[in-house]
Design a protein that fits this description.
52 residues, mainly alpha, 1 helix, rod-shaped
Length: 52
């Protein structure tokens, strides 16, 4: 009798939904956007919704 090897299915990460990788990426992008907004407001000297 010979030993046959059966392929083991590999688990893939989900592309959508609440997954740890997605949540970390969304949090980092939100922090980057917030810092960019603060930089724009500092450069302009007023908020984006306020007319100069």
């Amino acid at each position: 009798m010979t030993a046959t090897t059966t392929p083991v299915p590999q688990r893939r990460l989900p592309r959508f939904g609440f997954h740890t990788h997605n949540e970390i990426l969304n949090g980092r992008l939100a922090m980057l956007g917030f810092m960019a907004l603060l930089g724009v407001e500092w450069f302009l000297g007023h908020g984006l919704l306020v007319t100069p």
